[in-house]
Amino acid sequence: MASSTADSPAGLSLEPQSRRVGEKAIVAWLFLAALAAVLITIAIVVALLEPAAEFFRFVSVTEFFSTARWTPTQADPEFGVLRLLAGTGAAVLYSCIIALPAGLGAAIYMNEYASFRVRQVLKPLLEILEGIPTVVYGFFAVAFVAPLMKDNWWTWLPGQLGEEPGTQFILAAGVVLGIMIIPTVASVSQDAMAAIPRGLREAAYGLGSTRMQVATRVVVPGALSGIVASFVLGLSRAIGETIVVLLAAGAMANLSILPNDPVFTMTAFIGRTSTGEIAYGTTTYYSIFAVGALLFVVTLVVNLISIALVRKFREVYE
């Protein structure tokens, strides 16, 4: 037995050596994947910076953020991006009002109340909902949600809120945006809740807590960092969505957040203008890149805030 061990030292050393080579190959592949993501981000920034800088040769930053009107395609163009920011903010606001409580409620139900069989049905259905193309959501907003709301508008509301909307208005787009990001919020939040140790739940039940108390006072606070991350993922998707707001929110750059007003978002402007007939090298052409750069900065700020919140509320369990 001793001789066989002594006769095969090379055989014993081959397996660790091959394992080390495989691990190095995997690490190298992961490094290349991370490097590719960084390089793609840098390429996007570079692609936006030069045309955006060209835009600001003709339009000052002060004018860009303070002008009252956004009319880039008219004979006497004005470039007041605040109206686009307001439209984007309104779309995100209404989508979050729908998606955040609904997504969190779905996550709590799936994780704390639903049986294993029910969870096995609900989660794939949510993932299917997440995989539906956005253009389908856009036509759903135009063909079903907007006419339904228009025909049943709350005319008893005071002032401008009681005015019946047109065929395109921000609430219809916001509702469909909210429906679209519910699966993201629910899925990520449920995964965060599932990571909470079972011992915490059992200790709470042992103290006489009800299921609702365990869910709202133990599980949700413990999974708060993951829930915040799910909210920000949904928020980022709502900010960057194009087709739904392009089809359902209208194309009027109104400085309004009223639900029955049409608005123009940053993504809708980029989508509509870049596919239209505009001359290369004009200020209107370069305005697409300026708005794209601003959208990039807004998304970056949202993600930085997300990172800070996740670090603040992160819980580590052993």
UniProtKB/TrEMBL annotation:
Topology in the lipid bilayer: Multi-pass membrane protein
Domain ABC transmembrane type-1: from-to ranges: 85-306
TM segment ranges: 26-49, 91-110, 131-149, 169-188, 218-239, 285-310
Entries under InterPro entries matching the protein: MetI-like (IPR000515), MetI-like_sf (IPR035906), Phosphate_PstC (IPR011864)
Keywords of the record: Cell membrane, Membrane, Phosphate transport, Transmembrane, Transmembrane helix, Transport
Disulfide bond in keyword set: no
CDD domains: TM_PBP2 (cd06261)
Subcellular location: Cell membrane; Membrane
A Pfam short name: BPD_transp_1
Matching PROSITE patterns: ABC_TM1
Protein role: Part of the binding-protein-dependent transport system for phosphate; probably responsible for the translocation of the substrate across the membrane.
NCBIfam families: phosphate_pstC
PANTHER family from the UniProt entry: PHOSPHATE TRANSPORT SYSTEM PERMEASE, PHOSPHATE TRANSPORT SYSTEM PERMEASE PROTEIN
Protein name according to UniProt: Phosphate transport system permease protein
Organism of this sequence: Myceligenerans pegani
